[in-house]
Amino acid sequence: MEFLSEIFFALTWKHFVMFAIGGTMIFLAVSRKIESALLLPMGFGAILVNLPHSAFLDGGAIEILYTIGFTAGELMPLLLFIGIGAMTDFSPLLSNPKLLAFGFFCQLGIFIVLPLAHSLGFSIPDAASIASIGAADGPTAILVSHVLGSQYASSVTVAAYSYMALVPVIMPLTIRLLTTKKERKIRMDTDAKKVSKRKKILFPILTSIIVGLIVPASAPLIGFLMFGNLIRESGVLENLAESARTTLTNIITLLLGISVSFTLQADEFLKPQTILVLSLGLLAFILDCSCGILLAKFMNLFLKKKINPAAAAAGISAFPMASRIAQKEVLKEDDSNFILMHSAGINVGGQIASVVAGGILIQAARILGGM
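^ thats the sequence. predicted structure below, dont judge the formating
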């Protein structure tokens, strides 16, 4: 009885708030089917790690998983990139390489929010971690925040995956706010060039070398992403490619969710700055979409063959969701206008660009923060 009394009196309002947050994640995963593979284990883990005197902490199972997956080389996010690479078809980008420019320009919001977050009192590593939310790339945001040792890693993780889940809400609103009906009706050339197998195989190899040399901090991120893609495109490891995009991805996502919940302990997560972290992350996300749209609108002032700004908004990393949403927004105005190949090309370009941006954030934080 004395032990039970001790546990009861150890409970605070913060624990009940975290129980509610964990329950909300489970509700969204089950009832709304939003990022279920991650939010379900993360939500349940949030409940487990906030049980007073929990055996999951202080050398327990969840802490061990967290240590292996994050403090020992950030293995879990990197392994997840192999699966993402095996799922990604870069053909739409390779058939029209200039679309990569939109992918990179759509990361500009990250680098606008970085100095803004720092000016609001966040350290450089924390500001860089917060800014990484804007890419709508959960694994990259997790890796950046943990490599930089951000004290807001849990908030960054929750925000990154929450905004990924809200892409179908945020992206259409941004498109409609910044474009006219006439612009959303713009038709784009649909004659896609056939991409040879040689190009598909050389692309991940050369991309890894070039990005690794220019942005060394991105080498692990881009290397694992491109390794997964090389397995896919080689054509000789189909069983492994299938395993990478299904079995490996599912298992790592499951372990990632439950291990990340280690950072959702009440005292770590419930800080006054958490709301500000979530707000700045949302701003970075909206700015990323907006930058792609504004670039297309600017280029259309000079181009004979116009670019549909809705397609340009797909330069965030949420693949293939963003490209499909861009297509849906266009079809609302003209049900015979198909821009999916272009938006998919920009979307996979954003996948690469977000990984490079993550590496740049790590390098910049190390230099500016004296790490």
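The CA atoms of residues 85 and 277 lie 29 Å apart.
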